[in-house]
Amino acid sequence: MTTLRRAIPADAESVGALVDALLMELAGIPSRRDARVEAAARLLALSDCVFGVLAVDDDGQDIGVIMLTESASIYAGGAFGVITELYVAPAHRSSGLAQRLLMEAESIGRARAWPLLEVGAPRQPQWARSLSFYLRHGFTEIGPRLKRPL
């Protein structure tokens, strides 16, 4: 049975590698594993506002991850959660693992008294399956997210 556990700074290698796989799949970009491991180490050290959960299979292999960060806004009435990454290794998809990771994120949010979770869905229609997953689990569309490098 796959187990879920909170990610800690010592898990930076696993978290960085899983997020690297996610970003390569989503954007078709080359691996930047070392940079993502370094970023994971920095972020996981921010245990008061960044949260990670790893999915580990029976063989001890890390096969999924969800990363959350705490944000704040007036429209949310204060602090709320943002899912920044959610990834399940391809061989373990359609097994309910993403739903379990999402439920763990909701548990973290409830413990922190967040009124809501937000997530940015990947480009459509290419990643319609991802959008459908979130819609099936109670998320509603609020419009596209945009970014601007600084």
TrEMBL record:
Q: Which GO terms describe its molecular function?
A: acyltransferase activity, transferring groups other than amino-acyl groups
Q: Does the keyword Phosphoprotein apply?
A: no
The record's listing under InterPro entries reads:
Acyl_CoA_acyltransferase, Bact_Acetyltransf, GNAT_dom
Q: Does the keyword Cell membrane apply?
A: no
Q: Where does the source fall among the domains of life? A: Bacteria
Print the keywords alphabetically.
Acyltransferase, Transferase
What range(s) does the N-acetyltransferase domain occupy?
Answer: 2-150
User: Which Gene3D superfamilies does the record cross-reference, listed alphabetically?
Assistant: 3.40.630.30
**Can you name this protein?**
N-acetyltransferase domain-containing protein
